[in-house]
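User: TonB-dependent receptor protein, Acetobacter malorum DSM 14337:
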Amino acid sequence: MAADDATGKEPVLPPHAPTDAAKKAAQPQAVLSNPKGKGPELIKEDDGSESEHWVVTASPMNTLRTPIGISRMPQDVLHTPQTIDVVPQLLMQQQNVKSLDEALKNVPGITASVGEGEGGMAGDQFLIRGFAAQNDIYENGLRDFGVYTRDSFDYDHVTVIKGPSSQVFGNGTTGGAINITTKTPNDQNHIGASFSGGSGAYYRGTLDFSHKITDTIAVRVTGMGNENDMVGRDAVYSHRWGIAPSIIFGLGKKVNYTIEYFHQTDNRIPDYGVPVVTKPGASYGKPVTEYGVRRTTWYGTTFDQDNSNVDMLTGRLKWEVNPHITVYNDTRGGLYSRYFSASQESCNAACTSAFFSSHPQTAQVSRIGGVGGPNPYQQDDWSVQNVSSAVANFNTGTIKHQMIAGVDIEHIYDRRRNYAYNNPSARRWASLLNPTAYIPGLDVGVGSLNPDNLVNIPNGVGRKEWKTSAATDVGAFFSEQAWLTPWFSVKAGFRWDHWSSNYNATGGVATTPDTHLGQKQDTFNPNVSLMYTPNDHAMVYFNWAESTTPMGLYVTNSSEPLSPKNSKFQPERSRLYELGAKYSAFHDRIGFTASVFRLEKGNSMLTDPSTGTVTDSGDTQRNQGVELSVSGQILKNWNMIATYAKYDSKTTGGTAADIGKQVQYVPRNQATVWTTYEIAPKKPYNLTMGGGVTWREGVFLDPANTARVPANVEFDAVVSHQFGPNWKIAMNGYNLANRLNYGNLFSNRVTPSVGRSFLFNLSMTY
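Assistant: Predicted structure for TonB-dependent receptor protein:
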């Protein structure tokens, strides 16, 4: 190992960090002979001599060597003591993934929620292991505060870090965190483009251009245009486009700075699915589509729309001060604009009775959910975040250390203007079997002109035209990993946060007083891990971590408002115990992971699906289980990635009627498999064939276990052909069995997933 020019000493690296010799061994070599295709090979060295070497043949499907991509988590997946699922670039290409939601179908333990709150929410609203993660979506380690449906055109890969991670990310992360690593400039010049078309009037084009301007400056531009209807759902569509240019200064140097800009415009129709009803005599409710209602039935109106504009500017500094210390500074500013109007259907007792009577055509569904609303609103947000951190590697005697410390400051501001229908009762009722979207004479106006028709939130806020929220978080974090021996290390850390938030409701009905609420909280979240690493290919670990979710955390995308009654709620607290093992086998061709965990959550908060009212249930919940995965190259030309999760969840305290019940949204079993085989690679008659299945057992939709959604089973497939080194055609089939599956879930309704569909893709890369 080369000595440090400044100190004359060898740089200190963690025991598993690759040395220069190891990096050289992993480089492509000139293979002289290997008659059996396995074992050591004769390699011609630079001086002309020959020697035996093991040649690393790592598979891009083996995700254990994937860097986390966050400065506060500098290790790769293999050496990070948590359950981590990665959706690699190759998998997204083979599946022709077009959104974050589609990418996360490959990760067990993740479900999507319609999202509720004051006025209703949509966009990406995920749950990890049954716990909300809508504020836990990150891009290159920085929060993405926006409420929108994320397109995947700029994704390199997606990482899901499971379990409480407040020590790294701050408040939240009860079930885990989702981190998106974007496409940024590198030292390779290339241009790629693709066009997709198929079922549901699907048309999509993408562009990926990267170029080195000088030896140290490179640029990259990715772009997307997309129009599609949703197969299996009436009236639902998305028309969107996006662009993401980036530039790096100091490529390959000790100091480099990357600037990224992201823009996405999306005009879509929100889909709040179909209501859940309980048939007389049944033990729990099911979606009405399980009783014969058409899966295509949509209960919206011509006023329903979700139009969003997202702009984010990010700067990331990396400075290798010396071989021991690296300093990072990541900054992001975001602007989010959104007009949202949706119909939240519900089938009450009268509706249910009529549906199961001899005259089901008389059943009438409510399109406003509950008391008063929701009404349309214009949402305008801005956010800023800066994370400064340093990573230090050093020795004290025979003990190696890695210390990470930093400061995280973020501020988010949300302002909404509520609009009002001139005749809200006109849109209230619709036929359960044959709803109509057009309502004669109905119109939307400024809320101040129709103050009595504003949403009446029954928790002290009342009919108000303007709702504003803001929050500031100042956090400091520290962790140290100490290798007591080359094969055993201990990692411990903490994060302290000062959280301050406020909420204001003004304007509208004069007789309803304005509301001004605020709170401040200090939180402390520790983490301890023990790691046994017998070699660079294996690790056994134990992890204990805590996280905190204070009231008002989800400023832009969840339960608001606070009220005088609930603003003093104690924050949710969660605790994780996890034991796991990871092994990268056969020269990194295949990765295996296994973990058992217990996740405890205290002081659970609930949101009314109709009104957005937040209640402190006081419930304590527990989810425990096992997760397994295998990924990589099984045989030559045969790749596979498979996951399985078995969960045992229940409410352990609080509401007496709920104790012992299964935690809502948590399946008992969930699994995914995706595999491809390449026939005659690099031959004119080459062909790649593959497919997979995604399975999620049925889940309960409420804490009392009175409503349940059936199991999801989806079969997908792909066949592709490569024309020379630069062109490829592919055909993807989705939900080949045309099974009635359900995607977004909430307590009293669910959204049917896409029906059988096919997508053709033509792509080129130079």
